[in-house]
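Retro notes, item 3 of 5
We never archived the inputs for the manganese (II) ion complex last cycle. Fixing that now. Sequence and ligand:
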Amino acid sequence: MSTYVIGDIQGCYDELMSLLALVGYSSEQDALWLAGDLINRGPENVGVMKFCMKEPNCQVVLGNHDLHFLGITAGVSRARGKDTVHDLLAWDGCPDVIEWLRHQPLIHKDSNHIMVHAGIPPNWNIDDAVSYAQEVETCLRGNRYKDFLAAMYGNEPRHWDSQLTGMARLRLITNYLTRLRFCKADGEIELTHKTQVAPPGFSPWFALPRPQHEGTTILFGHWAAINGVTHQANAQALDTGCVWGRQLTAYRLEDGQRFNVPARTQVS
Ligand SMILES: [Mn+2]
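Structure as it came back at the time:
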């Protein structure tokens, strides 16, 4: 039995199938972890969601694109120029997708491995991160989830304070777990830079001293620009830009081996 962790699929269904064939994935014997951004920007969102929802040993965490899809369906946002979720919106299984996504976590933890879409700031320990994720998960599953989706968009606040309350607290937790790239040692987050070049005073979250994360390997996606490279054994980056015409990558938990397939679709 092997566990394969795959980064941002973003609707690239064909590449997902090719990658599973390449590693010899067995639905019955192996496990699959998907690091979020299952959908959007790519061509076959319905295919990806059908697969995830029926796969017996598939564990996902939510990414910013998955949450944005929920925001669109809740009527608090709209599909914008680059969004490609129209196939899902038109599909008669769409209500099931919404319910299924609302019940997925933002973090998945298994002994000394943790999967999250974007990252964990250095000022949080692993138990804190799991607990903060649960606050958002509880809200997303509750009756007032549309209020959260409406309040989720935005880059403020940028400083973590355990005394934060309400939607500002949930927004910052969500931004850390699903959008983080650059921050400072105290957790101040910077959400406008997407390349691998840090804005002055900031570092990639995984490159900062993280004594609180010692002993845990963090598996994450979201940051296509770093192309899978962190130079940190305990931070494995899995978004290798499939939807941008590069590769889809799987990481085998048991031995750390990486597998990848080339993108089939060039999205302009
Ligand atoms: Mn993302």
